[in-house]
Specification:
By secondary structure, the chain is an alpha/beta fold. The chain has helices at 7-21, 36-42, 66-82, 97-107, 121-127, 148-152, 177-182, 192-202, 217-225, 243-257, 273-278, 291-298, 334-344, 347-353, 364-369, 379-383, 397-412, 418-436, and strands at residues 55-61, 86-92, 113-117, 164-170, 172-176, 209-212, 262-263, 282-287, 304-307, 319-327, 389-390. The chain folds into 2 domains: 7-169 and 325-390, Periplasmic binding protein-like II (D-Maltodextrin-Binding Protein, domain 2), CATH 3.40.190; 171-319 and 394-436, D-Maltodextrin-Binding Protein, domain 2. The longest helix has 19 residues, at 418-436. It holds the Pfam family SBP_bac_1.
Length: 437
Amino acid sequence: MKKRLSLSLALILAFALTVTACGGNNGNNASQSPSASSAASESASPSADAPKETVEVTLAGWGASPEETELLKQTLDEFQAKNPDVKVKHEVIADQYMDVIKTRLIGGEAPDVFYMDGSEAPGIIESGVLEPLDSYVGNDFDVTDFEEPLLNAFKSPDGKIYGFPKDFSPLAMFYNKKMFADAGITAPPATWDEFREVAKKLTKGNDVYGFGVAPELARQLFMTQAFGGKVVDENGSAVFNTAEAIQGLQLVIDQRIVDKSSGQPSDVGAGWGGEMFGQGKAAMVFEGNWAIPYLESNFPDLDWGTAELPSINGKKGTMAFTVAYVMNKESKKKEAAWKLISYLTGKEGMKTWTSKGFALPSRKSVAVELGFDKDPIRGALVAGAAYATPWQAGKNQPIISTNFNNQFVSAFLGDQKLDAAMKTAVETANKEIEASK
């Protein structure tokens, strides 16, 4: 996970934003004439017949694979061909991405448009540094086409939209077809009860685990909700030690402690679930579409498939990891910035960007047009978008996630009971949250 700003820097950010917000532009409607300030910076031509002045918009994001970098370049080239009056200056921030962005926001040097991970969104939205995008949306930009859970990840509590998701990566069940066949299992399990029994059949001591699990909040959050539990309350405090939340979390613990049918990657010397699965040390893992090119490249002879995650308590669930394009509230080029955002998250731009399936389209129509909804591997991933839980734990996520992970791993390893572990995690997290105010 990315490192966060220190408390003192966060306080400086809050103060700086309070001061600068008074002079900021509160949003221009893309369907209306630009305001006087944006007209001065973006459209200084003296008459309608004069050629438009080229506006340079800065776009920042983190690094990607060479294949993804080439896809983004292609998408940006297509945008600039259709919008010759807008020049995009693309910057890759390779290290400490959010620290760099927050520092630049404080100093008034942040890019016009930048990536925003869904996990960071609640805190950044609350800080007031982002431009709300609702007023820019015209009839040619179909908001209803976005998968609702992904769009909701970038909304404020009052319903304003501060970012449009460019893509997403959900979790699905990756399963070893040969191991299934050898054990006489004809279909992937559809419910958790079935999943538990299948995992026991596929486990072979400490050599092969039926279920390779990542014991962290980012993977278990949806399980806390299966019986009505929550991770945080409306005030941002940790509440994942309720009976309802623990009932969902207990499922994974029981597989480890009672059934002895689940293990984490480190148990078999693997670095992550995809490697554990590829090496044949786990018959089933919950991973995202990032595992697809990894398995195809590193384990070409492995016979595997995907399925939706098994339902829990009669409810479908999964996680979704999503990223949006957002606009700097202090940008002086908001009309041009919106042109860029609307293209990159519009149907045409998103089709190019997600065409190889490295990340999946957040627009339903694009997923259908590219055939991902019917794809034998990616279909299960796409199906999860409609009911996925975005990876977010409120504005205090770093504190909450760290304390959860520390104590949950302890319970997973059998060092303490789950309810005691979660009680300790919640109490410690809330003390740290209170101390940070």
